[in-house]
Amino acid sequence: MSAPQSSGEHLDVDALLDDRGVGIVVCCGSGGVGKTTTSAALALRAAERGRKVVVLTIDPARRLAQSMGIEALDNTPRPVAGADRAAGGHLDAMMLDMKRTFDEVVESQASPEKARQILENPFYVALSSSFAGTQEYMAMEKLGQIRRDAERDGTYDLIVVDTPPSRSALDFLDAPERLSSFLDGRFIKLMLAPARGPARLVTAGLGLVTGALTKVLGAQVLRDLQTFVTAIDTVFGGFRQRAMATYALLQDRRTAFLVVAAPEPDALREAAYFVDRLSEDRMPLAGLVVNRAAERPDGDLSAEAAYAAAERLRDVPGGGTGGSGGSVTAGLLRLYADQERLVERETRLRGRFAAAHPQVPTVVVPALPSDVHDLDGLRRVGELLAR
Amino acid sequence: MTSDWPGVRLHVVTGKGGTGKSTVAASLALALADEGKDVLLCEVEGRQGIARMFDVDPLPYAERRLATGLAREGGRAGTVHALHVDPEAALLEYLSIFYKLGRAGRALDRFGVIEFATTIAPGVRDVLLTGKVYEAVERNRRNKGAVEYDAVVLDAPPTGRIVQFLNVSNELAGLAKVGPIRSQADTMMTLFRSPRTAVHLVTVLEEMPVQETTDGIAELRAVDLPVGGVVVNLVRPQELDADQLAGADVDAVARDLVAAGVGAGPGLVEGLVRTGHEAAERRSLEDRQRRLVDALGVPAYELPRLTQGGDLAALYELAALLRAQGMA
């Protein structure tokens, strides 16, 4: 079968994976487009082509995680036993534990006593487990850590990162900046003001604000909040520095971003958004992966002709497959026609994307009839990616 | 067919990313309007998906009339209004209504408190988002001036976050043990846990989404949130079963094509048979997932994969299908 390629330039996945100048591949895109599978397939293919690879996943399907040996969420890369090491490479995999990563950052930045104080504060607990963007930020934090360790120990020469399904495309790039600007915000300064003596900020506004907060939240909440803000302020400098280092790492030309999408209007719109954002932030974009594409069935019949033939078959007396009055063939003709229609629709959608982003190399990966949950499945996806 | 959810006023629609949850929420709103109900369709994630589906300009933080249901014979058609809930605007409104904080509210904004509250404390953010929805559901008793709705459909966050999102008092528990925002959250929980609410889950017949749906139902039940139905979306044609598809045979297909007067060019017969065999493989996987959905013990509804895709006419078509199956 022939996979319809988009009008844009073709993305050469093997050339990307073989390029020793590329040390980080980041897969981003909206939820439900097969990002995790794509990341894992790329990592496995790179390892079996001789790279020393670690893949950082966020939330893989249970059976896929099992087949890679990473059921446990322990923030430590583990070797993937089934990966072929004949070419001299190897593959490790890990699942990100967002909360633990955050805890580790706090522990590394503050004295043990201070760290304990922060870790126990209810606001920290809320922030570290569900702050919008924490997951994104922690994925980047972990990437930075692994990168530093890998450079020191020579453990890996390629890190493949799967990104969380963001609420919006922006979360992923904005998270480091948002977290640090939040911690540097006016409100935090305001909360810190009483603790810092000369109350330059104590204006008429302050009374209003604390009064209003007490009214809405209650006094206990306000006290917890103040404790938290005072404590986190001491580790704040470290956060900001790290966030900026991670951002710079992403902009480095040894990083390659792949935007993953499905041939659906929403997913492609998000992909377009990502592409624009990446170029705005001068992030190195390697290309677009369009997963789950419909494949044009063999045969030269148009969708309309196939529907018409299926209708005519209904009237053929007894002349059909095993006495079924042609119903199986009629059904097949309709499936064929549906498939043709789907291919036309997806081609139109991809064409629209390519017209607006002609500079983005693209690879189209056909939909597989079954789910991917083992290394052979990942290899098959890898081959399709490299077509 | 009568509705499976006659007493429900708040329909929460969740689902894994990529399953078409927003489309289902919009179709359900239209289906309820077809029943003569006045419906508010809310979105809370800032995606402006409703505006795109109904082909209108991006929605402001205000209720907009979007569409009218198809009237039944002798009946009156209901309406669909839409609301895009924005947490910051909701907080300011909340402060001015419940605490009469006009000036102080603006001071809070100036000091970045609004951003702070809606960013740092996700519990507070969710209380604000769900609070607005709560207000719309309970409106007839509280606010005589505004539009009254017979039903509210919430295009909610995805399955992975839905329990956290709705279980607002629990989420706040760590942050606010007492205080006004806490009692506000507790009042809302009373509605969410009541039979007037139903949380519907959207899935497709694939392994991961079905697994997430199963997990989601267990999590909802664990915190006493009322599970509604499961909507199986994007279903492929069911005309032939797996055996018929797998049994497609080159000679028979070739004979049928001749009988139908199709001049089969090279490859067509093989193409049709291969299409059948691949569909058979997919079909048997789907059948396995469908059995899992059936075993969940909640009403299930099916919506087809539309090959033309995504316009307003398609929403009406899906709405009619939901009605015919008793979801509205």
Characterization of the model:
The complex is a heterodimer of chains A (387) and B (328). Chain A is an alpha/beta fold and 387 residues long. Chain A has helices spanning 13-18, 35-48, 62-68, 98-109, 112-120, 122-130, 134-153, 169-183, 186-192, 204-217, 219-251, 265-280, 303-314, 327-356, 375-385, and strands at 24-28, 52-57, 78-79, 90-95, 158-162, 255-261, 285-293, 362-366. Chain A has an 8-stranded mixed β-sheet, sandwiched between helices. Mean pLDDT of chain A is 81; it is low at 1-6, 195-202 and 319-325. Chain B is of the alpha/beta class and 328 residues long. Chain B is built from 14 helices and 8 strands. In chain B, strands 3-4-2-5-1-6-7-8 form an 8-stranded mixed β-sheet, sandwiched between helices. The relative contact order of chain B is 0.17. Classes of the chains: A alpha/beta (387), B alpha/beta (328).
